[in-house]
Specification:
The structure holds two protein chains of two kinds. By secondary structure, chain A is an alpha+beta fold. Chain A contains 16 helices and 27 strands. Chain B is built from 13 helices and 23 strands. In chain B, helix 3 links the parallel strand 17 (177-186) and strand 18 (207-213). The interface between A and B is large, with 79 and 84 residues.
């Protein structure tokens, strides 16, 4: 059956129509004399419509189309980490070896090295009752990550034999009594979510070290976030910051239809960046998928599925996984391009009518779950959206916002003022704080939620006052309101702004974030007191210790010194009263 | 291929010709049409099946009739490439336009080009000094970058592009750039302007020109930039040249793309442009870069005119999502008589951070650049406020910023068309001089150590 052959009938860009075969939907087929990889996306009478993952020029009608009987799948096992793949899990390093620096076509490459030997350490033993998803051993894949070997989802049984030692990933390391053989590698179809027992409510934050995100608009482990923004507002920088500093154990980064040079930047930089939680290179916990904008569009469509399947696989080991997709708009455009070649009836702005359901299905694969093996694992999904003209009323942004729980709205105006991260604190939101507050109280400070509320309401008040200032100038405001403006400015410039390219400022521990926020509130309180005692606004605002406190965040050891700097500032502010 | 000639045209629609009953024809194949009067036209297969073949005709379909002979050449579009391209002027289809001989090919290169494996790219991080302060300080260009100029009709984008072409150099290196210039639908007048300027400065000998003018076939514009980039890739990656590709005007290119889309009755995306325009543009812009193990590089300067000065129009919008930043030309500054009228606020270079700093430009570059931005942005915002409440309502800091914005435009942005400022003495020192107009306590973007070292009046050295 799987060797059934057909012929090409028509070619239109990445879409090829074949006759003479009757494949299943989403089955992988080999197209043309060069055997290009394609996937069946529509059956139409005796015609099968195929999206081809490689460039189709030079192919002609009459060339063969061969069924494989398989659906598009990824290989899962030791060797995934530190890899960089294209949209259909071909390692880019292997492609370079076989075809040079330019990506030509018709070359196959296994997603995992099938010959490399890994040290398998069995943790289960003969006679143990296991089921699909049970962990039977591990491989120390990188310095920091233990790759747990699981029985593939499906029925289980008693272990008949299991052996530690050096094996390649296709060799059987464990047999069950019913004869099922388990190797370190398993395969999984990318368009099917991997199974789990149940979804749990997310109640632990994904700490990113980015102050505005962690403090004001937190994302939970297993949550979903959307970052829409016009070009130049910092989507990619934000995504890369998350990939660098999130306290996830595994990071999957999908560069979907984006710039080649940016992927290169990530590739050259990650091996040298250290994970603040482990002190080891970040690359050790990262898998990357790069399908740049000029690589075949059908493979771009597949890339997000490839990525999320890998993320789910690590989740099933009991890890917290963070997945960044940059950008989901390019994925949606790939769907639109294919859909238009299929001459489907378009929905809004030419996008296919199934756009929003595809988006929903994708984000729904995020979540904190009880795995089949009984562990607690999560996949957090952060999707960048690139709305045309920065206008988020378009279908991809709207489709995304209906699903995600966190909205980090990037703002071109802030970017122009070089306020980075250019996340608008008035329009952004997170639906997680309530679920997370208990965690903050237990782990950071008992008044953490209250401090957050004060900070965000100060920003609200500022926005209202700014409207008046636009009309009458700030000097016309009463002193206490002028102080509020100063405090809000401090929040913006000292707290919300964060320099991704500064060695120290790029990452703030949650505890420090809290200290900084408290420092701002202390400044407000002390200043109010001083001004009530006769000090002038200019005097309290200009105490040198405040500048030291603010500039100090760029220096190493700030977390240890902030208390002292704060004390000095309070002293100086109190001093302004005595001068009067 | 022996080449059968078919006379089976059924439909002709805009630039497209539909044929039936051919032997299998490959997708993307090159086609030759022979009209009854003997004129030859060229085309390319856009869609092929057993029953019908759709051909896009580059020179337009005027005079094509049902008797026109159609021959499939059995190959995709190729450009003869060689070092001999340097110093030559070719037309939009790659034929000599300067009266010179045909190009003797060292290789026949497929013009579609293949994607560079992201793994094989080299990170661009060599600073290119353009001698224009606005660009060097605030939107620094690096080798291998693609940085478009977003302009609009009536603005001096051509002067700026030429000034960059003339002055671009690597600091501390005498490697020269070869310029590949690609004209798409520009007027003969604009074209002459470019050629004369390149001639005047002797740059023409170091340039390859691909020219499709406003009265040349519109569909041909779809291949002209691909020819130019194919030549650029060959020169960069086979002969180690550092290539600067200037193409103008991307807006005309996109118009042609829309024309083809409409003729094929495709479902249009925004404003009638095809849904695949992002991918199509990416296949041009992404051909910039540096590659491991090769000495050469391709740096791109696409010029596009924003219809109605609208940066959210699909052409600048999609370009901005692909390119590594943009240089935005401002009508307001132009009307104030400032050249180059570059508005640094919406301008951006994404690769800037990799190319500046100690050992590349100067250690204080990033700080200075951030401070210039912040101060200028603040000053410009205050202009709006002053128009309503008057200067009296401003405090000391705001007054200084307001004044700074004027000084910045007048002394930092403004420079003459042949003024070539060096990054350190010419641009950054000038920036420090101008920043003395603001009290240091308001210069919060500057690290104290740079104030101590570089501030003209506060420095400790």
């Amino acid at each position: 059956m799987s060797e059934e052959n057909g012929l090409i009938y028509r070619i239109s860009g990445p879409v090829v129509t074949a006759v003479g075969i009757s494949p299943r939907m989403y089955e992988v087929v080999r197209v043309g004399d060069e055997g290009l990889m394609g996937e069946v996306i529509e059956l139409h009478g005796d015609q099968s419509v195929i999206q081809v993952y490689e460039e189709t020029s030079g192919i002609r009608p009459g060339e063969p189309v061969i069924r494989t009987g398989q659906t598009l799948s990824v290989k899962l096992g030791p060797g995934l980490l530190t890899q960089i793949y294209d949209g259909i899990q071909r390692p880019l390093e292997d492609l370079e070896e076989t075809m040079g620096v330019f990506i030509t076509r018709g070359v196959d490459a296994d997603g995992l090295d099938l010959t490399k030997k890994w040290e398998f350490n069995a943790t289960a033993s003969v006679g143990d009752e296991v089921s699909g998803g049970s962990i039977i051993g591990f491989v120390q894949e990188t310095e920091t990550v233990e790759h747990r070997i699981m029985v593939p989802p499906g029925p289980g049984g008693k272990i008949a034999s299991i052996e530690s030692g050096e094996f390649d990933i296709t060799t059987t390391v464990c047999t069950l009594e019913d004869g099922t053989e388990v190797a370190m590698m398993q395969e999984w179809p990318v368009r099917t979510p991997r199974p789990f027992i149940q979804k749990n409510a997310p109640d632990v934050p994904l700490v990113t070290g980015q102050r505005i995100l962690d403090f004001l608009f937190p994302l939970a482990k297993g949550g979903t976030a959307g970052i829409p923004g016009p070009f130049g507002a910092g989507k990619t920088v934000t995504q890369q910051q998350l990939a660098r500093w999130s306290d996830a154990q595994i990071v999957v980064y999908i560069g979907c239809g984006e710039r080649g040079n940016e992927m290169t930047e990530v590739l050259t930089e990650f091996p040298h960046l250290m994970d603040p939680n482990t002190g080891k290179p970040l690359m050790n916990r990262t898998t990357m998928i790069a399908n740049t904008s000029n690589m075949p569009v059908a493979a771009r469509e597949a890339s997000v599925y490839t990525g999320i399947t890998i993320a789910e696989y690590f989740r099933d080991m009991g890890y917290d996984v963070a997945l960044m997709a940059d950008s989901t708009s390019r994925w949606a455009e790939a769907m639109r391009e294919i859909s238009s070649r299929l001459e489907e009836m378009p929905g809004e702005e030419g996008y296919p009518a199934y756009l929003s359901s595809r988006l929903a299905e994708f984000y729904e694969r995020a979540g904190r779950v009880q795995t089949l093996g009984g562990d607690d694992g999560s996949v957090s999904v952060i999707g960048a959206v690139s709305p045309p003209g920065g206008d988020i009323s378009e279908p991809v942004s709207q489709g995304t916002l209906r699903i995600v729980k966190v909205f980090w709205g990037l703002d071109a105006g802030l970017a122009r003022q070089r306020h980075f991260p250019a996340i608008n604190w008035l329009s952004s939101y997170s639906l997680y704080p309530q679920a997370l507050d208990q965690w903050y109280r237990d782990n950071i400070a008992s008044d953490f939620p209250e401090v957050r509320t004060k900070i965000s309401s100060l920003l609200q008040v500022e926005a209202e006052l700014q409207e008046i200032v636009q009309l009458v100038g700030s000097d016309a405001l009463p002193m206490d309101q002028q102080l509020t403006l100063e405090v809000a400015r401090m929040i913006r410039e000292f707290f919300l702004q964060q320099n991704a390219f500064h060695d120290v400022d790029t990452f703030s521990q949650l505890g420090l974030q809290y200290e900084m926020a408290k420092a701002i509130l202390t400044f407000q309180e002390e200043s109010e007191k001083a001004m009530a005692g006769g000090a002038g606004l200019e005097e309290v605002v200009n105490v040198p210790a405040r500048t030291d406190l603010m500039r100090g965040r760029f220096e190493e050891g700030y977390a240890e010194r902030i208390g002292k700097l704060l004390g000095e500032m309070s002293k100086q502010i109190a001093g302004t009263m005595e001068d009067n | 291929m022996s080449g059968k000639e078919y006379r089976t045209i059924t439909d002709v629609k805009g630039p497209l010709v539909f044929l039936e009953k051919t032997e299998p024809v490959s997708y993307g194949e090159i086609v030759q049409l022979r009209l009854s009067d003997g004129t030859m036209k060229n085309g390319q297969v856009l869609d092929t099946s057993d029953d019908q073949v759709i051909v896009q005709v580059f020179e337009g379909t005027a005079s094509v009739d049902r008797q026109t002979g159609v021959k499939f050449l059995g190959d995709v579009f190729r450009l003869p490439v060689s070092k001999g391209l340097i110093g030559r002027i070719l037309d939009g289809a790659g034929k000599p336009r300067d009266g010179g001989p045909e190009i003797v090919a060292e290789e026949m290169a497929d013009i579609i080009g293949a994607a560079i494996n992201p793994y094989s790219r080299e990170s661009p991080e060599q600073f290119i000094q353009t001698g224009i302060s606005a660009i060097d300080a605030c939107t620094s260009l690096v080798r291998g970058q693609k940085l478009p100029i977003f302009s609009a009709s009536g603005l001096p984008h051509n002067d700026i592009a030429l000034q960059i072409a003339r002055q671009a150099k690597l600091v501390g290196s005498d490697d020269d750039f070869v310029v590949v210039f690609c004209a798409m639908g520009i007027t003969a007048e604009e074209y002459n302007f470019f050629v004369h300027d390149l001639e005047r400065t002797g740059a023409l000998e170091n340039a390859a020109l691909f020219v499709n003018l406003a009265d040349d076939p519109a569909v041909e514009r779809l291949i002209t930039p691909r020819l130019a980039l194919t030549a650029a890739e060959y020169l960069a990656f086979e002969h180690d040249y550092h290539v600067l590709v200037i193409y103008t005007d991307m807006t005309n290119y996109c118009e042609s793309l829309r024309q083809i889309g409409a003729a094929r009755e495709e479902v249009p995306g925004r404003r009638g442009y095809p849904g695949y325009m992002y991918t199509d543009l990416a296949m041009l812009y992404e051909r910039a870069g540096m590659v491991k193990g090769k000495k050469g590089s391709i740096t791109q300067f696409p010029i596009l005119t924003m219809p109605g000065d609208d940066i959210t129009h699909p052409i600048p919008d999609l370009s901005g999502y692909i390119t590594e930043g943009q240089i935005v030309i401002s009508r307001e500054l132009h009307q104030k008589g400032i050249y180059p009228p570059i508005n640094v606020l919406p301008s951006l270079s994404r690769l800037m951070n990799a190319g500046i700093g100690e050992g590349k430009t100067r250690e204080d570059h990033k700080s200075v650049s951030d401070q210039l931005y912040a101060a200028y942005a603040g000053g410009r915002e205050l202009r709006g406020l002053v128009a309503i409440v008057g200067e009296d309502a401003l405090n000391e800091r705001d007054l200084q910023l307001l004044k700074f914005a004027d000084i910045f435009e007048d002394q930092f942005l403004r420079q003459s068309r042949d003024e070539d400022r060096s990054i350190s003495e010419g641009t950054l020192d000038l920036a420090w001089d101008l920043l003395t107009n603001i009290d240091t306590k308001y210069l919060v973007r500057l690290d104290q150590k740079w104030i101590d070292k570089y501030h003209p009046t506060e420095s400790k050295s």
